[in-house]
Design brief:
heterodimer; A: mainly beta; 6-stranded mixed β-sheet; 5-stranded antiparallel β-sheet; 11 strands; B: about 120 residues; 4-stranded antiparallel β-sheet
Chain lengths: ~110, ~120
């Protein structure tokens, strides 16, 4: 089983809609969870961190964590063309972060 | 300078060349990392340095040789590379506490390497 799984294919959303991204992880003792945004040809940029069960909101982004289900998600409200990027889920464990393969989001004007 | 800086931004090298990638972090972090990102593939962790000591080497070929002279600088020495080594090479840093990455990684802008 992969440490961090992001299974959804490319996600196309109309401008102004909500984009929803999901991530599951295998290490039950993981304490810290992150979402990174990566534009094509650029490096990953940290956009959200979450450490406790529940929701954490930052502007148009909301991260949701459920440690019992080993599940973390990212919602992007009022999606904009500038949100078109690949979103990487990362989970702490084994003295390092484990990254998922990422989900591509395309916001259609 | 702030954050994590990597040089050069782009590098084209022949298979017989020797070159080095440089990374410098200005964040006071105690851990540094090299990642490889190939097209359409996830991030691949190559090397980890905690407090200047190499703590992880993920079966990376010996044609890649890391060096960490101090907690702020990290190098990746390259020699006799293959075309399949062409990729984006990313450096990252973090503040580690007792093996838990509580604050995430800060990435540099990367070096786009092309081996011809």
């Amino acid at each position: 089983q992969k440490e961090v799984e992001q299974n959804s294919g490319p996600l196309s959303v109309p401008e102004g809609a909500i984009a929803s991204l999901n991530c599951t992880y295998s290490d039950r003792v993981s304490q810290s969870f992150f979402w990174y945004r990566q534009y094509s040809g650029k490096s990953p940029e940290l956009i959200m961190s979450i450490y406790s069960n529940g929701d954490k909101e930052d502007g148009r982004f909301t991260a949701q964590l459920n440690k019992a289900s080993q599940y973390v998600s990212l919602l992007i409200r009022d999606s904009q063309p500038s949100d078109s990027a690949t979103y990487l889920c990362a989970v702490s464990g084994n003295n390092r972060l484990a990254f998922g393969k990422g989900n591509q989001v395309v916001v259609i004007p | 300078e702030t954050g994590v800086t990597q040089t050069p931004r782009h590098l084209v090298m022949g298979m017989t060349n020797k070159k080095s990638l440089k990374c410098e972090q200005h964040l006071g972090h105690n851990a540094m990392y090299w990642y490889k990102q190939s097209a359409k593939k996830p991030l691949e962790l190559m090397f980890v340095y905690n407090f200047k000591e190499q703590t992880e080497n993920n079966s990376v070929p010996s044609r890649f040789s890391p060096e960490c002279p101090n907690s702020s600088h990290l190098f990746l020495h390259l020699h006799t590379l293959q075309p399949e080594d062409s990729a984006l090479y990313l450096c990252a840093s973090s503040q580690e506490r007792r093996g838990t990455s509580n604050y995430g990684y800060t990435f540099g802008s990367g070096t786009r390497l092309t081996v011809v």
